[in-house]
């Protein structure tokens, strides 16, 4: 499964190459509650076909009626337009925007093929790209970035960071890994599984996952973690998990986690500090026990808690300590 952004942009490029008329739609601003965040994109063809999303569906339906043959109109050959939905309570209700939310969209009609093709090629090569659109002329400029930048819109220019998929490296095959890999794929992560144990890999059933049989520390190095990467150790075997974690903790990965009980997690921290030169400060990067506390018992429920924590960290959400597994269980024991 590939990134939604890449899928939208590749589709737009391919439709243009095939001679279709289309519009590329980007959410540039939101107020109040909104179904999709700023930067979300969709592409719509003249016959009403769409890829991507800018709302829960009602905005897309209105765009189809306004700009497709299904609504008796055609996609124009003109400069971009800025349109706003949900300005009044009646409009918000009509378009299904929650709690009186409002969103502003940039509509690019027949965007430049060469710029789209260049952008898609850069994204497929794993580059992080800033795409800037002149909202008056439609001219697009591209620049590669070393780190993501916040979306910027000043009313006349829109700059957004578009990047390759977030990546997940799982250490250890098993039912928990299968559930977590499935959830990660549906959340636009590219997933790699590492397990040197053939007997564990033989039963792996999730497709779309890259598999490596390297030793975990070598796998982390080969993975080349960056700021869009997360690493989760799930083998329950310290000979495998610890090797991977020792390398991962000193990488740029935005999230490093490990399965285990509270006692095993604390023992691991002590081992790392006493024998491998780690410190209490460096160990703060390790999410262990992994996940947030939701009373999970089954592998599927644990995978939900892990994926929720990863998404929260990726999105910059500071979770309260009471949601950490160790803290929550300790408080329950005091009751």
TrEMBL record:
Highest taxon, organism lineage: Bacteria
Organism: Pseudomonas saudiphocaensis
Classification of source organism: Bacteria, Pseudomonadati, Pseudomonadota, Gammaproteobacteria, Pseudomonadales
InterPro entries: MoCofactor_Util/Proc, XdhC_CoxI, XdhC_Rossmann_dom
Name the record gives this protein: Xanthine dehydrogenase accessory factor
Domain XdhC- CoxI: 15-85
Residues covered by the XdhC Rossmann domain: 168-310
């Amino acid at each position: 499964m590939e990134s939604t952004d890449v899928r939208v942009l590749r589709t737009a490029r391919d439709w243009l190459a095939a001679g279709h008329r289309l519009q590329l739609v980007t959410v540039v601003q939101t107020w109040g509650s909104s179904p999709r965040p700023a930067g979300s994109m969709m592409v719509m063809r003249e016959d009403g076909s769409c890829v991507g999303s800018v709302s829960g569906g009602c905005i897309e339906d209105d765009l189809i009626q306004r700009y497709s043959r299904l609504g008796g109109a055609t996609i124009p050959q003109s400069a971009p337009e800025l349109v706003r939905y949900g300005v009044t309570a009646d409009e918000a209700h009509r378009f299904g925007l929650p709690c009186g939310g409002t969103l502003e969209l940039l509509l690019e009609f027949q965007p430049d093929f060469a710029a789209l093709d260049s952008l898609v090629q850069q994204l497929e090569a794993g580059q992080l790209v800033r795409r800037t659109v002149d909202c008056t002329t439609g001219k697009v400029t591209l620049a590669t970035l070393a780190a993501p930048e916040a979306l910027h819109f000043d009313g006349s220019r829109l700059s957004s960071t578009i990047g390759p998929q977030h990546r997940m490296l799982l250490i250890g095959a098993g039912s928990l890994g299968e559930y977590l890999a499935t959830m990660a794929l549906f959340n636009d992560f590219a997933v790699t599984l590492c397990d040197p144990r053939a007997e564990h890999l033989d039963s792996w059933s999730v497709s779309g996952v890259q598999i490596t049989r390297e030793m975990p520390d070598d796998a982390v190095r080969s993975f080349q973690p960056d700021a869009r990467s997360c690493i989760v150790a799930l083998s329950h075997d310290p000979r495998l998990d610890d090797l991977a974690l020792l390398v991962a903790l000193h990488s740029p990965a935005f999230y490093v986690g490990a399965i285990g009980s509270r006692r095993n997690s604390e023992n691991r921290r002590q081992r790392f500090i006493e024998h491998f030169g780690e410190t209490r400060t460096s160990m703060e990067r390790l999410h262990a026990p992994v996940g947030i506390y939701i009373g999970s018992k089954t592998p599927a429920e644990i995978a939900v808690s892990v994926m929720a924590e990863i998404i929260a960290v990726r999105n910059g959400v500071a979770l309260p300590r009471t949601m950490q597994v160790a803290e929550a269980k300790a408080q329950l024991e005091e009751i």
